[in-house]
Amino acid sequence: MTTPDPFELDVRPQLQRGEEPFGTIMTAADGLQPGQALRLIAPFRPAPLFGVMANRGFAVSDRRRSDGAWEVLFAPLEDARPDAGLAPGSAPGAALWPDPAQVLDLAGLMPPEPMVRILEALTALPEGAVLFALLDREPMFLFPELATRGHEWAGNPAPDGASY
């Protein structure tokens, strides 16, 4: 069996237009074939993305290119298997986390309010504590913020798709 060529995604044009590329990157990662890597081209080293992709089961290698851009290869790890019922990108072993120390019902709030409240609540929790948040949608912009601050996440959409 041959390994498919990496899928290349250049986010520089999107960033030049002032657009946030995180959703595009996650969509690309979700669309990869089994064993396929994602080659990301960016104008800067996207270090906050490294933790997010590691939680999704990817090894990370990066290099600065001669044109000044950064090339990052996210290669899938062979033994990365998401826990049953959890969304792609959820932290490995999340099913073994302790019960939540705090629960937030953020359904019905408009973005960015849920993200703001989650980040505020996390500052008050001790290390290793779990925060549970009920949301109306997948919080795509929250994931890189959590990675930047050293937090892991796990998610699962409700069976009816009405909440996350």
TrEMBL record:
An example Pfam family from this entry, by short name, is: DUF2249
- Going by the entry's taxonomy, the superkingdom of the source organism is recorded as Bacteria
* Residue ranges occupied by any DUF2249 domain in the UniProt entry: 8-75, 103-158
Instruction: Extract the InterPro entries matched here.
Output: DUF2249, TusA-like_sf
* Name this protein carries in UniProt: DUF2249 domain-containing protein
Q: What species is given as this protein's source?
A: Paracoccus lichenicola
What are the leading ranks of the lineage?
Answer: Bacteria, Pseudomonadati, Pseudomonadota, Alphaproteobacteria, Rhodobacterales
